[in-house]
Design goal:
9 helices, 6-stranded parallel beta sheet, Dihydrodipicolinate Reductase, domain 2, 310 residues, 9-stranded mixed beta sheet, 31% helix, alpha/beta, binds NADP nicotinamide-adenine-dinucleotide phosphate, Rossmann fold
Amino acid sequence: MAKHTLEIAIVGVGKIARDQHIPAISGTPAFTLKATASRNAQVGGVDGYGDLDTLLNAHPEITCISLCTPPQVRYADARRALLAGRHVMLEKPPGATLSEVHDLISLAEARGVTLFATWHSRHAASVAAARDWLQGKDITGVEVIWKEDVRRWHPGQEWIWQAGGLGVFDPGINALSVLSAIYPRALHLSAAELYFPENRDTPIAADLTFNDPGGANVSAVFDWRQTGPQTWDVKIETSDGTAILRDGGARLVVDGTEISAGSDHEYRALYAQFSELVATGASDVDLTPMFHVADAFTLGRRRAVAPFDW
Ligand code: NAP
């Protein structure tokens, strides 16, 4: 007998949909990709529509919608899908504002459907090992270093420089999603410096300082101007040694020895979790990484730096 799968549609066929979502759905028996909604792109072999309303009307059998658009336009489509009684999976960050995501949480609850705000980096191969290693340790310092070349990873993406696109917090929020997943306590921002190219609305770099009620010195540096080697590290000093979660969470090195490493199954893990949430009638929306980003925009000092052009 054929295995029952959930029928799903993708909205926003762009970089992340093609790099990760479509392959992950193909590799997850729980889902079958049935259609897409995208203004300018289609995926071979499935029905393609220019907008979500048309897709929802044409396909009442599609129960799940995965939103892969930039954050500024995600709320309107999420709302449409939830109102139509569909389960919704949101790329990170889950929205452009915290209050719009709260509205989606209420709507999903009222409609009795699943809302899943994904944080793909939390599923990197060694994040769970780092969380386990930290359990019960006396943490004295944390340094997050997330430095990458925006031209290499976001070529030509104008939305990242527009209000709501988050600038360097687009990758930086991944670091915050990892830190908040492994850290044994809630942290809160105490200071921030944000570096805005004088011709752009979002920052190209940020220095953050956090208050840890447990007393550790916690800081983060995000920079999109890094050429050459790229760095996505979380370094944690404890009285029992120093752990470095490297390569965006792929590898855990403790006192110079690699104790965990694995390959990238982040998006397959997300779709497995989404199917589980749908099956159990649950939602999962953790806004902690977004709180820190919102706090940085609230508290941060603004510094003007050289204009950015592609
Ligand atoms: P993208 O390729 O620039 O955008 C995805 C698609 O969204 C576009 O191709 C476009 O397709 C559609 N879209 C709808 N409204 C749009 C608008 N106002 N401006 C631009 N595109 C619009 O972006 P992406 O890199 O896939 O990122 C999408 C989301 O995934 C972001 O929240 C990002 O943080 C997250 N993400 C990205 C990566 C990555 O490596 N790129 C990794 C993890 C997560 P149509 O023109 O056909 O409508």
